[in-house]
Amino acid sequence: MPKRKLETLTEQMYFVLLVLKKELCGVEITDTIAKITNNRIQLGPGTLYAILAQFEEEGIIRQTKIEGRKRSYIITNIGDELLNSELERLHKMIFETENYLSEQ
Q: What's the Cα-to-Cα distance from 49 to each of 10, 15, 27, rounded to whole Å?
């Protein structure tokens, strides 16, 4: 069975959506993600802009401003649903893992 596009998110994708609950430009996105993950996740420009392009194409985020080369983005309702779905999936995975480990 082929994998549906964006059925689950990579860790980088998840954090991009999370920080785009607030309008941010590319540099602000990478800085915010590095800050909240204690520098565990550091997105390079190639990775970031590939994610942003894919999310924009799918209607998951939208551009809010263009000032020269600086572009700002924010999550859409579709993106919010995707983020909440992924959060729920992660919660379930942790719950199932903890249940399994407690039975060992």
A: 15, 14, 11
